[in-house]
Design a protein that fits this description.
Layout: E1 6-13, H1 15-28, E2 32-38, E3 44-51, H2 53-70, E4 72-80, H3 87-90, H4 99-108, H5 116-138, H6 166-176
Antiparallel strand pairs: 1-3, 1-4, 2-3
Helix pairs in contact: 1-2
């Protein structure tokens, strides 16, 4: 932890008085605002500043004058060249904001900003790379189909139906033909119901 040149502590009642005190102290002199800390009880808030002795004295005086117009100032203290052990008290974990956060922001330096035109170019390049990679991975759909020697896609042929012989067709017609003769009930008999018996091919004269 870095050693403080000198410190100034102002204790006020209420947050509004503490904010007014800190604002006036930082504006009036070349001091750094360490932060503030909530005191135990009474709604008191302690404002802490640091810098060289003259700057801290000027900042404390300006802060007290400004805070007195808004609220109440309880006490103040200025310590030139404080001892190292006081850093643990002044820069405690209850201090808001923490001094470590300020040091990190200073070390990081300014943040570089990229123009919008460059961002658009980078985004377009990334999209082009993704599209090209996707096409190479998928490949054409026809690659999965096997090819024969002639260069045409091989498609399995369905078996041709076997021709039905004429005799089988005739048998089918004969089987499906309805008998018209009520004497012999033979589908081959040309006799119709009601015609003379002699027309039946099975009629032998007299009885059947």
């Amino acid at each position: 932890m870095a050693k403080l040149d000198s410190i100034g502590v102002i204790e006020t009642v209420g947050l509004a008085a503490a904010i007014e005190c800190a604002d006036a102290a930082v504006k009036s002199a070349n001091v750094e605002l360490i932060g503030y800390e909530l005191s135990r009880g009474g709604g008191m808030i302690t404002v802490k500043i640091s810098g060289n002795v003259a700057a801290v004295q000027a900042g404390v005086s300006a802060g007290i004058a400004a805070a007195a117009k808004v609220g109440k100032v309880v006490s103040k203290i200025i310590i030139p060249r404080p001892h190292y052990d006081l850093d643990k008290i002044i820069l405690s974990k209850d201090n808001v904001p923490a001094i470590q956060q300020k040091e990190e922001k200073k070390d990081n330096g300014p943040v570089e900003t990229v123009p919008e035109s460059e961002n658009k170019i980078l985004e377009a390049g990334e999209e082009l790379v993704e599209t090209t990679t996707l096409e190479e991975t998928e490949g054409p759909e026809n690659d999965a189909l096997p090819e024969n020697d002639s260069g045409e896609d091989s498609i399995p042929e369905s078996p041709k139906p076997k021709p039905v012989s004429e005799s089988a067709e005739d048998k089918t017609k004969e089987t499906t033909k309805t008998a018209t003769c009520n004497i012999c009930n033979d589908p081959q008999c040309p006799r119709q119901k009601g015609e003379p018996h002699v027309n039946c091919i099975h009629y032998k004269g007299g009885k059947k």
